[in-house]
Specification:
The structure is a homodimer. The first copy, chain A, is of the alpha/beta class and about 400 residues long. The first copy, chain A, folds into two domains: about 15-195 and about 305-390, Rossmann fold (3-Layer(aba) Sandwich); about 200-295, Rna Polymerase Sigma Factor, Chain: A (Orthogonal Bundle). The first copy, chain A, is built from nine helices and 14 strands. The first copy, chain A, has helices at about 140-155, 165-175, 195-210, 230-240, 245-250, 270-285, 290-300, 335-350, 370-390; strands at about 25, 35, 40, 45-50, 60-65, 90, 95-100, 105, 120-125, 130, 160-165, 180-190, 320-330, 350-360. In chain A, the strands form four sheets. In chain A, strands 1-4-8-5-11-12-13-14 form an eight-stranded mixed beta sheet, sandwiched between helices. In chain A, helix 1 crosses helix 2 (about 165-175), helix 3 (about 195-210) runs antiparallel to helix 7 (about 290-300) and helix 4 (about 230-240) crosses helix 6 (about 270-285). Chains A and B meet through helix 3, helix 4, helix 5, helix 6 and helix 7 of A and helix 3, helix 4, helix 5, helix 6 and helix 7 of B.
Chain lengths: ~400, ~400
């Protein structure tokens, strides 16, 4: 594990993993991780950030799980973009995840492109980038890799595991794989299995990437190029699904971009076009195309019921974890109905579960925003759980 | 006007407009069409199909307007794919649009790629393909071009103008531009203006096409290539929006394609992936990428209220046209709320309007399918309108 300091402006194409700010757990070959696909992965690395201090009995650790295109910089400015951490308003002294009280860990997922082992990294066995030779991973593989970070700290049980979207899938997988290691769990705006529509949207993104000639079968890094156009299109398509129609209408409507009249051309006449193009073009500066393939695939493969004989409740039988499920009314990517299925499964095994649907028109992205009712819900749940856990204020 | 016969298998890349089955109206330069962008387009051509017989007083003509990727082969096998016409179950003897009673016309829209003037065709002034030098057209331009076909037949008034999706926009534009020429109008699953979300989805498609290096700034035909990969991705993204989540779930769920287990790779493991890939790859055999740009742009520009001082009702003030608006409950591309806005505008000017929301889980595509309640609605409306028009059975 090393803790290097940020030196100069980093870019995705050029950075060396060891120059990234934050921590890095290097797992040796003899502790290889058996992946769902059957491959033993090792050595491998997990890059992560921590906030706050682990208490003496190691009972105050919170694992934050990031979404598809998130990373470990949850409450730290992003080393490439300089933008605030993606949950900066959630994590810090006195905030919902109070770093005066909790020890917060956020790892870059296995398969990611911000320092954890993934297709962007060097395969130690060959000295070349993994590319498509990196094994296809699952949400469970991500979680097993995160558990190695707990082992590293000697943390037997997380006080809480929390995350939205793909982060919520990891939360559910944590609770299913390691029930004794999860005191409380907060899956947000997620699903216990990826729907056909969501697989379809992911497949569009993958096809956009793979259609870009610069993808070169995943070996672009070898050639010093990147499929930035395909990746931008993938991001644009995905981004629409993160917003609600109402939010798009309120934010942009049919307003024109820097002009009084339509141009009768193919420039970005409308603000919504300009916005989407910007989303696409900035994304490619911080994300790796092959990682996008791997991580979307992991989401598509996720099906917690299928792993448990087709009965979702079996994933949680006997659990003592306290659950708080949160959904958002205008989220059409992971709608309330998907979240409610999780609640029904937990009810079926008499688990301790609360379920809150937050009224908002901000769509799936609401989980990344300061929604007062959302934050109040989390505060209330965490306060109760901390009391039961005997955590000091 | 010529009526050539189908000879051998045609393909989009190679066909000459004059080898297409059906009719073709060639408008000479002296009758140029003044487009909304200010350009005078002429000479130009409109390719179309007809079904049934025009009656003596020319009162039984029905204009069918096709959607984004439709064409004039509404009840005729497609010359490239050999598939049945896209409304074949709607048009014919004894069917909803009864060809024993009505004279049905369906034109390929201006800007299209099935014989009407558009970026795929030869610019007579240069002898080269138009490509991006073709003027950007609007829904109103499409309708004005269709009106030339009526002029050609000496038809003063259509008995009915009918269409779904972009076809519905043309219906509304017909009623607004030529109120005296439209006895009845049936806009289906449409909107009086394109929403921010719909513009966004179109922009993703356009970016996918323009990101393909083989698009070559729209000049691909000059180079004997085609941006088939970008166009396929555009089609895949759009296709998801035509279906409902429920329909995708029922049709595919998480079923695997020709395998018992996931492959831990990037092949099409899931049926929904395989289906989407098929949609993309077959589409490029029958559609032109530049036409896709132009026609999506025309949809995005469509805003009937904006053309009438910001008040949609003004578009229909004084209308004597009889309207029947149809929407589908699970259509999230042109939801009932958008269709209801049209009804409200028509109500505000005391127009003769009926509005029917059809219960279905088949999404936007329902307008192309044999939905019994949908068909019954159309039959009932047309029967009443025909009686008022004094059309013989």
């Amino acid at each position: 594990m090393s803790t290097p300091q940020r030196s100069e402006k980093l870019t995705l194409a050029s950075f060396d993993t060891r120059t990234l700010p934050g921590h890095r757990l290097e797992v040796p070959a003899e502790s290889a991780l058996r992946l769902d696909c059957g491959v033993d992965l090792g050595p491998f690395a997990i890059a992560y950030q921590t906030y706050g201090t682990l208490n003496a009995d190691k009972s105050n650790a919170v694992m934050v799980c990031h979404a598809l295109t998130g990373d470990q910089f949850v409450a730290t400015p992003h080393p490439f973009t300089g933008k605030p951490g993606w949950w900066e308003h959630m994590i810090g002294p006195g905030l919902v995840l109070d770093t005066d009280r909790y020890f917060v860990i956020c790892t870059n997922v296995l398969g990611g492109c911000m320092g954890s082992s993934g297709p962007r990294e060097i395969n130690p066995a060959t000295g070349k980038r993994w590319g498509l030779s990196f094994p296809v991973i699952t949400i469970a593989d991500m979680v097993r890799a995160q558990a190695r970070v707990l082992d590293h700290y000697g943390i037997d049980q997380l006080f809480c595991v929390i995350g939205g979207s793909m982060g919520g899938m990891q939360v559910l997988q944590w609770a299913a794989l390691y029930p004794e290691r999860v005191f409380s769990a907060v899956p947000i705006a997620t699903a216990a299995r990826h729907s056909a529509q969501n697989i379809a949207f992911h497949e569009v993104g993958r096809q956009a990437i793979m259609a870009d000639p610069e993808w070169t079968g995943g070996a672009y890094a070898e050639h010093g190029i990147r499929p930035h156009r395909g990746l931008a299109v993938a991001r644009m398509a995905a981004h629409i699904t993160y917003l609600s129609e109402v939010a798009l209408h309120r934010k942009f409507g049919r307003s024109l971009q820097d002009r009084q009249q339509i141009s009768f051309g193919f420039d970005a006449d409308f603000q919504v076009e300009s916005y989407l193009r910007h989303q696409g073009s900035t994304f490619v500066d911080r994300f790796d195309a092959n990682s996008y393939l791997y991580i979307t695939r992991a989401c598509d493969y996720f099906d917690l019921a299928a792993e448990h004989g087709g009965v979702l409740a079996n994933a949680f039988r006997g659990t003592r974890t306290r659950f708080c499920i949160v959904s958002f009314t205008s989220d059409w990517l992971y709608p309330t109905s998907e979240n409610r299925m999780i609640m029904h499964a937990l009810n079926a095994v008499a688990a301790n579960v609360s379920f809150v649907e937050i009224e908002t028109d901000k769509g799936h992205d609401a989980f990344l925003l300061e929604e007062p009712e959302f934050f109040a819900t989390l505060r209330g749940f965490l306060a109760g759980a901390a009391e039961h856990r005997g955590l000091k204020r």
